[in-house]
Amino acid sequence: MLQYILDHTVHMGILMVLALSLNLINGYTGMFSLGHHGFFAVGAYAAGAFLLYGFPPHAGLGVGILFFALSVLVGVLAAAAFGVVVGVPCLRLRGDYLAIATLGFGEIVRIVVQNTEAVGGARGMEVPYLMITRGVDTQLQYVLLYFGLAAASVVVTYVVIRNLLRSTHGRAMISIREDETAAELLGVNLVKYKLLAFVIGSGFAGLGGALYVNYMTQIEPKEFNLIKGIYILLYVVLGGMGSMSGTVIATALLYILDKMVLNLLPPEIQSWREVAFALMLVILMIVRPQGLLGNKEIYETALWRKLFGRGAKKEEA
Amino acid sequence: MSYFLEQLLNGLSLGCIYAFIALGYTMVYGIIKLINFAHGEFFMVGAFSGYFVLTFAGIEVLPLPHPWNLVAGFVLSLMAAALASALLAVVTERLAYRPLQGASRIAALLTALGVSLLLQNLGIQFFSAEQKGYPELREFVQLEDATEYAGQTFEGSAYLLYEVTSPVTGETRQEQQFVATPGKPFEPAGLVAYKDLTMAGSPVTGFYIERPISTGWKKTLIIVTLGLSFGLLWLLVHKTQLGRAMRAVSYNPEAAQLMGISSGKVISATFFVGAFLAGIGGAIWGMRYGKVEPFMGFLPGLKAFIAAVLGGIGSIPGAVVGGIILGVLEVLIPAYLPSEYTGYKDGVAFIVLIVILLVKPSGLLGKWEGDKV
Amino acid sequence: MSDAILRIEHVTKRFGGLTAVSDFHTDIQAGELVGLIGPNGAGKTTLFNLITGVYEPTEGRITVNGKPIAGMTPDRITGLGMARTFQNIRLFDEMTVLENVKTAYNLRAGYGIVDAIFRTRRFKDEEKELHGKAMHLLQLFGLADDASERASSLAYGEQRRLEIARAMATAPNILLLDEPAAGMNAQETEELMEMLLDIKARFSLTLLLIEHDMKFVMRLCERIVVLDYGKIIAIGTPDQIKHDPKVIAAYLGDEVADEPPALPSPEHVPAPDPAPAEPEPADPPAAEDAP
C-alpha cells in the first residue's frame, strides 16, 4: 500500500517538475508553448540512450549512482539544447503562431523517436535498472529512493525558478508577458530573455524526462504525445498561470483525481474520464480562466491569511 | 502511368482534402482570429455522417439507372457529412467560443483544444474506438460478353440476372445468381456469352459486375468536388451579401457593427460554411482511404492548419494553394526517399511549418502584419 | 560634428505605397525642450517609432548620443540613453508600481542569472541598491505610497506619471514623451508641466514631446516642429509657429485670413479622444498579435 502511494507520488513529482517548468515559459514569460512534451521526450530519450549504450553491464552501486547522475545531466543538457533549437525560430512569433510552431516541434520529436530504431522506434526503449540488484534490493526501497529524488527535483525546480523570478531577470521575463514592446523599449533584451525562458523551462523538463526514464526503465513514444502536453498545460492553467504554488497544487489535485479517485469508479464510468477532463478544460476557460490562484501565490491569498494569520499581500518580484 | 505522375495525382487528391479542411480554418481565423483546433473534429464528424448514410440508407439499391444511383449516393453522403459538420460547428461556436469573445487568446486557444479533445473522446464513447470501414461506392456495370472475362478475378462480385415466373401467381421477378466470387477466377458456365445462358429454365437477362469504383474515378471525383466547392465558395464570398459581410467583419469588426452588420450572425455563418467544407472533406477522406475512426481528425486537422498557414492564414485562395502544396509534398517526398524513411511522412508537414514560419510567417499569399506601438 | 544629441537626417518612412514620414531633417541639441505637433495622422508617433528603433527608416539616418542606430534593436537604443513613453499607457498591469520601475533597471543591473539563482552577496547588494533607486524615483514622482499597489489600480493621472518615472529609471539623457498630457484637466496639466521642468533640470534631460494640447506645448516648449502629412511644414519658437500661416492652414483647412487669426485654442483644434483607441491612421493597419 505504501508502495502504491509512493509510486504515485513519484509520477506526480515528475509532473510537477514539468508543469512548473512550463509555467515559466507560458505563465511568466507569456509565451504560448504547446510543445513541452517534446522537451520531456528529449530529456527522457537522451538520458535513456546514454544509459542504454553507455552503462557497463556488470558495474556496482557506485558506478550506478554515477551513471544516474550523468544520465540526468545528459537529459537536462539535451533538452536545454533543444530548447534553444525551438526558441530561436520562435523568437519573432506571437500567440497562435507560437503555439502551433511549438506544437510542431513537439510532434517532430515524437515522430523522430518513433522512427529511430536505435532508441527502439515505435516499440519503445528499455534501459538497464541502475539501482536494483546493485544495492537497492527491494521494490519498496526502490520506490522510496525515487520518491526522495522526485521530491528533491520538485523542490530544486521550484526554488530555482522562484529565485530567478524574484530578480531583475524575472522581472524582465514577466514584463515580456505584460507588454513585450514596452519592455523592449525600456531596455529589456527580448532575445536573451525569451531564450532564457525556453532553455530553463526545457532544461527542467529534461530533468523530469531523465528521472522518468530512470524510474520506469521502459519508455515508448506514445507516452510523450500531444495529449500529455495538453495535460501538463491543463495543470498550469488550472493552478493559475502566474502562480508556482498554484501549479503544484493543481497538479496534485488533478493527478489524485485522475489516477486515484476515478479509479475507484466502475469501468463504464471510467471510460468517460477523458471526456470529463476535456470538458473541465473548456468550462474552466469559460468560467474561470485565471485558474485557482490567478497570479498570486498561495501565501498571498486572503484564505491563507485567515488560516495562518500571516502571509504577504503581494510578494515583490 | 509513370511513378511520378501517379504519386503526383495521389498528392493532389490528398492535397484537395487538406484544402477543404484548411478553408474552414482560414475562414474562422480570418474572422475571429481563433485557431479552431476542433475543426479537425468537424471533419471527423462529417466522415462519420457519410459513413452512416452510406451504410444504413442503402443508396445504391435505389432504382435509378446507373450511374445515377452512384452519383446520388455520393452527393447524399457529402450533403449529410457537410450538414452534420456545419451544425455541430454552429453549436460549438455558440456554446464554447461565444462566451470567450473578449478573453485572452490563450484562453480561447485552450478552449478550442478542450473542445477538440472533448469531441474526440465523445466520438470514442459513441462510435467506439475501432476503425470502421467506409462503404465504397460501388458501380454496377453491365457487360456484354461473359467469355471475355474468363479466368479473371474480380474485385467485386459478378452475377447474372434472370427472370423467374412464379408458377403459382404468374408474377415475374428478377433473381440474381452469383457466378464469381471476389478474388477467385471467373469461369462462365460453358464459356458462352450470357445471352445464351439459362438459369432455372429462364433466359438470362443481364450479366453484371459489381465492383468498387476505380481509384482513378475516385481521384477525379475529389478534384472535381473541390473545384466546384471552391468555385461556389468564391461566389459566396465575393458576390453575395453574406460574403461581403464576412469580409467586412474580418477586416474591422467595430466598423462592420457600426454599419449594421451583426457580427454574431456573420461569425456563425462563417463557422457553418467552414465546417460544411470540412464535412465534405471528411466524406471524401472516407471514400478515398476507406476507414473512419474517432481520432481521424487530429492529424489531418493539424496538417490542414499548417496548410492554411503555408498559404497565408486568413486567405481563402491561400488555403487551397497551401493544402495542395502540402498534400503533394507529403506524398512525393517519402515516395523518393529510401523506405526506412517512410515513417517520417507525418514529419513533412511540421518541417514545412517551421520553414514557412521562419521564412515568411504571413504565408505564401498572405500579408505581413506588424505590431502597432 | 555638431553637439546635436539627437540627429535625424533626411529620414523617410514608407509602408508599401504609403509615405508616413517624408524627408524629416532636424538636429536636437542637448538640453532642448522640443515639441512635435501636427494634425492627426501627420506621422508623429511614426517618427517616435523610427527614433526608438521600432521601425527602420526607408531612407535617412538617425544618430543618438553620437551613435547611428541603424539596425539596432530598441533595447540597445534605450541603452544609449534614450527612453520614451506611449500614447496609450503601456504599464505592466499585473506588476506593482515598484516592480514596473525596477524592471526598467534591467539593462543596468549588475548581476547575472547565476547570482539570482544562488542568491549571492552580489545579488543581494545590487537588489538593495536597485530598490533604493527605484523608491527614490517613486518619491520624486509622488508615487512612493503606492509602491506595492498593482499598476492597473492607479488613477489615470498617476499612471501617466508612473510611465514617466519608469522611463526615467533607464537613466536616459533624452526623453521622448508621446502625448503626456492626454486626458488631463487644466490642473493636472499644470502639475505635469512643473514636473517635466523639474526633472529636466534635475536630470539634465533633453525632452522631445508630441502633444495636441496647444496651450501646453506653447508654454512649455522652446522650439516646435510642425508635421503635416509626414513632412515638416514649420520649425520655430512658439511665437513664430503661432503666426505661421502654413501651420494655421494645416490645422484649420484652407482658410487663410488677411490677419493671422488668434492661435487656435484647443476647442477649435480637432482634438482626438484623450486616450485614442487607434493610433494615427498613417500607421499601417495592423493586428496586435500577429508576428
Task: Report the oligomer.
Answer: heterotrimer
Determine Rg of chain B (CA atoms, Å).
25 Å
Q: What ranges of chain B have pLDDT less than 50 throughout 5 or more consecutive residues? A: 369-373
Approximate strand percentage of chain A: under 5%
Of all chain pairs, the largest interface belongs to: A-B, 40 and 46 residues
Structural class of chain A: mainly alpha
List keywords for this structure.
heterotrimer, A: 317 residues, mainly alpha, C: 291 residues, six-stranded mixed β-sheet
Give your account of this protein's structure:
The complex is a heterotrimer of chains A (317), B (373) and C (291). With 317 residues, chain A is mainly α. Chain A has helices at 2-28, 36-54, 61-90, 95-115, 139-165, 168-185, 190-216, 226-239, 244-261, 267-270, 273-287, 302-308; strands at residues 125-126, 218-219. A two-stranded antiparallel sheet of chain A has the order 1-2. Chain A is globular, with a radius of gyration of 20 Å. The mean pLDDT of chain A is 86. Chain B is built from eleven helices and seven strands. In chain B, strands 2, 3, 4, 5 and 6 form a five-stranded antiparallel β-sheet that branches. In chain B, α2 runs parallel beside α4 and α5 packs across α6. Chain B is elongated, with a radius of gyration of 25 Å. Chain B starts with a helix and ends in a 14-residue tail after the last helix. With 291 residues, chain C is of the alpha/beta class. In chain C, the strands form two sheets. In chain C, strands 6-7-8-3-9-10 form a six-stranded mixed β-sheet, with helices on both faces. Chain C has a four-stranded antiparallel β-sheet with strand order 2-1-4-5, covered by helices on one side. Chain C starts with 5 loop residues before the first strand and ends in a 39-residue tail after the last helix.
